[in-house]
């Protein structure tokens, strides 16, 4: 064979190799960067709290999650040993130096070879599971594609629900609209068939304040994919979050609302203990109970007095008279305000609570004192009667700025 032919063949081989190299698929990092650029190009001031909703943005968001999943699979597969303490430290460090990073936020162990992963872009999140198969990891489940079944709130995870105009779609409620981001994955007692169960705690994207909407969902791993067992939206405060497990009982701190009092969006507000029973074959919502029962009792007293409903089972006539006087003063003040036609006849503003109430134990009962931004301290004495709180005395301190 002549040197010319050999040179020609060598050149042809080089072209083939060059073509193969140019045809190599882009890396997860390159795909992530491309998707992020597409999102940033459409980004407005509040883009981190929901995309604008164009098909291009939805595709970019899906591409972003896909790239993170592929990166995570390779990241875990390249490790001889899975040490989640070291891995999660590494993930935190990766995010500490960049606004966005292809790495997920955190990884949680569900059972040997099965892990739950949280990832996010600003206030928009994704949750997926990876499992080890034939020596390497693969994506086993993606919450974007999960069937909501009897729990529509799970739709908030779907990419087309991460739009900031989601609630404008027909009957779409805020419960089924994102964006939403995963906070933590917690293992629960196995079910009656010995299968792994876990809870996913998440938060809906919100522009401000520390009182936010959360989502709790409970899943069972059936060996192939997680199956939804229960899900619900609730409200909680970042500064008052707690999680306690006592056997079958799960207790979570939540936030509720009074009818007559108000708490600011960055205040603790109406603290509630939410109890859920995690039984072998079913999940039961046992409801919420107030942490400060006296404030709930006062709220009910004021509401009944305002609505001219019987309250003799809650308070003495003297307490009811004092409450009626406070209500009359507030109504007179509100009557002097400019009217714009937006008044709510089912709501009377008695003031925003200033700080936490002060409780004092006394012989035969106890008292609670609190302050609103529109009144001086109000102290109410309670006794327990027939297993319920009963107000026996209500005292105002209009000239003071603190509870005595």
Provide a descriptive summary of the structure in words.
There is one protein chain. This protein has 2 domains: 28-238, no CATH class; 294-396. It has 6 helices and 16 strands. Strand 6 and strand 7 form a beta hairpin. Strands 1-2-3-4 form a 4-stranded antiparallel beta sheet. The protein has 404 residues and is of the alpha+beta class.
Mean of residue pLDDT? 87
Order of helices and strands: HHHHEEEEEEEEEEEEHHEEEE
For the record, give the distance between the C-alpha atoms at the N and C termini, rounded to a whole number: 107 Å
Biggest beta-sheet profile: 4 strands, antiparallel
Radius of gyration, CA atoms, in whole angstroms: 29 Å
Strands, count: 16
Low-confidence stretches: 1-10
What level of helicity do the residues show? 25-40%
Please write out the topology.
Elements: H1 3-22, H2 28-41, H3 55-77, H4 84-96, E1 106-111, E2 114-121, E3 124-133, E4 136-142, E5 180-188, E6 197-204, E7 211-221, E8 226-237, E9 243-246, E10 249-256, E11 270-278, E12 283-290, H5 293-306, H6 317-335, E13 358-362, E14 365-370, E15 378-385, E16 388-396
Antiparallel strand pairs: 1-2, 2-3, 3-4, 5-6, 6-7, 7-8, 9-10, 10-11, 11-12, 13-14, 14-15, 15-16
Helix pairs in contact: 2-3, 5-6
């Amino acid at each position: 064979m002549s040197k010319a032919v050999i040179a020609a063949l060598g050149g042809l081989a080089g072209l083939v190799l060059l073509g193969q190299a140019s045809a190599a698929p882009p890396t997860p990092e390159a795909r992530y960067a491309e998707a992020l650029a597409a999102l940033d190009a459409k980004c407005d001031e509040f883009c981190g709290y929901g995309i604008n909703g164009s098909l291009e943005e939805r595709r970019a968001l899906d591409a972003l999650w896909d790239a993170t999943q592929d990166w995570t699979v390779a990241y875990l597969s390249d490790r001889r040993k899975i040490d989640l303490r070291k891995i999660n430290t590494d993930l935190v460090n990766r995010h500490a130096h960049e606004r966005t990073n292809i790495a997920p936020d955190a990884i949680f162990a569900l059972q040997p070879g099965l892990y739950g992963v949280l990832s996010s872009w600003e206030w928009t999140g994704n949750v997926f599971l990876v499992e080890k198969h034939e020596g390497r990891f693969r994506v086993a489940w993606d919450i974007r594609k999960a069937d909501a079944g009897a729990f529509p709130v799970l739709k908030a995870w779907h990419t087309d629900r991460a739009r900031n105009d989601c609630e404008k779609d027909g009957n779409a409620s805020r419960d089924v609209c994102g964006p939403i981001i995963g906070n933590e994955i917690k293992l629960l007692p196995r079910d009656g068939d010995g299968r792994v169960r876990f809870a996913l705690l998440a938060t809906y994207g919100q522009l401000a304040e520390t009182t936010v909407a959360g989502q709790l969902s409970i899943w069972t791993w059936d060996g192939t994919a997680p199956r939804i067992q229960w899900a619900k939206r609730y409200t909680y405060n970042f500064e008052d979050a707690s999680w306690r497990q006592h056997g079958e009982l799960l207790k979570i701190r939540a936030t509720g609302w009074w009818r007559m009092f108000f708490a600011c969006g960055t205040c603790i507000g109406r603290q509630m203990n939410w109890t859920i029973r995690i039984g072998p074959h079913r999940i039961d919502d046992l409801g919420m109970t107030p942490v400060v029962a006296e404030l709930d009792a006062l709220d009910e007293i004021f509401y009944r007095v305002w609505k001219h409903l019987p309250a003799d089972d809650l308070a003495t006539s003297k307490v009811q008279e004092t409450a009626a006087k406070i209500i009359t003063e507030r109504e007179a003040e509100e009557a002097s305000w400019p009217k714009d036609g937006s008044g709510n006849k089912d709501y009377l503003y008695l003031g925003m609570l200033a700080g936490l109430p002060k409780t004092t134990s006394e012989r035969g009962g106890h008292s609670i004192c609190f302050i609103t931004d529109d009144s001086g301290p109000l102290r109410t004495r309670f006794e327990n009667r027939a297993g319920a709180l009963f107000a026996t005395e209500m005292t105002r301190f209009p000239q003071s700025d603190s509870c005595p």
